[in-house]
Design brief:
SH3 type barrels, globular, 101 residues
Length: 101
């Protein structure tokens, strides 16, 4: 992953900021050294595991089709149709029926 600083801890997830300026959500236990998980605030997410969605691969790129794998507070893990996975804020994820891209 490279060198990064923790910008926010949110339950079992950490938002990290890389030297080159981009950010990503990762599992806290995947960091070296691992970060300590904290209880997430009771935020609601409009998507649920199994929902067919469109989500951004990064904050500046267009959205791609995928499926929600897991929701943790206000963050959802999306697995895109090509197999890639990313944690992203729920407000960046949009549900759709999957019949059109």
């Amino acid at each position: 992953m490279g060198t990064a600083q923790i910008a926010e801890l949110y339950g079992k997830l950490a938002r990290v900021r890389f030297e080159r300026g981009d950010e990503a959500w990762v599992l806290a236990v995947e960091l070296e050294p691992p970060a300590t998980a904290t209880p997430p605030p009771p935020d609601a997410c409009a998507v649920a595991p199994g929902n067919r969605v469109r989500a951004p691969w990064s904050p500046t790129e267009k959205t791609y089709a995928g499926r929600v794998r897991e929701v943790h507070g206000r963050i959802a893990e999306v697995q895109f149709d090509d197999g890639d996975k990313i944690w992203t804020p729920c407000d960046a994820v949009r549900t759709f029926d999957g019949t059109s891209d």
